[in-house]
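Suppose you are handed a protein chain with no further information: no name, no annotation, nothing but its sequence. What can you learn? This example shows the usual starting point.
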Amino acid sequence: MDKIRAGLVGITGYTGMELARLLATHPSMKLTMGCSRSEAGRRLGEFYPFLEGLPGADIVISVYSPKAVAENCDIAFLAVPHGKAMVMARELLEEGVRVVDLSADFRIHDADVYEAWYKVAHTEKHLLPEAVFGLPEFYADKVAKARLVANPGCYPTSIILGLAPALRNGLVSSEDIVIDSKSGTSGAGRKAVTTSLYCEVTDSFKAYGLGKHRHTPEIEQELSLLAGKPVTVSFNPHLVPMNRGILSTIYTKLATDKNLDEIWQVYKDFYKDCPFVRVLAKGSLPETRFVRGSLFCDMGLVLDPRTKRLIIVSAIDNICRGASGQALANANIMCGLPMAEGLGQAPLLP
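A reasonable first move is to predict its three-dimensional structure. Written in structure tokens, the prediction is:
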């Protein structure tokens, strides 16, 4: 059987690199086109030497053209900045190509909210109603029928998965939720900027975007849907000196008399059919090194009776689960394949 043909627009960043890696060994999908204006004309194997000898290495990087993508691809991944993806998505949909957008352009349902946080006019508002938020554990049925999937952000993925069972089952209050998230530097992208240089990041630890990070409305949108009422959170991201990974520590106020054993069972039952969400044994807490390069989200629970708080800790790989791997899972579903196809690798160690 012929493999599904995939195109990747924006192949030179970390998300493009990870998608190229995952597609190189995918049993039912193959990379047939890679686009980058700055690297056009180079062999992909020359640009990414780790691909030499693997499928896709001989692809010649080209300048994006919607008609060329339509001729060579059945589905396209957009790994380009917000503001640019929305136009490309519309062009590709008009050409009959299904789209997984890794930018923020279609994640937020309300165009006014998007414009307020991203300071960019949304020129393709007519597509927002059909864009599906691509968190497969919750929206797989909609993803399977979609032409356009909005791939979730990395921080929101770790937070929404961590809070979903608690909010859906009324275990915690929807008010006074404080989220402390820490990310590796790859989350800042691959462009050479001073704040991401080795000497600026190593042996240091800093907070940024407090009270104004652009992932906030995405988090609140999905948590509000889970809770069935408006949810406002205090989201506080930090940069840590590691390459990849996100650890989110979520502080909530208990709204139940259940003990830790009962709460843990709620989480286990909630995710019993979700192979890539691992609720750890009571007393265990997740670490980013144990999910590196994988689609896993590991989570641990701590019940603090003194402060009456349920503390939820979740860990993901920001590049794989937080971007490229999740995008591929969505593409699998859109193409009628098992969600996990090509994504069953064990985490990368050490």
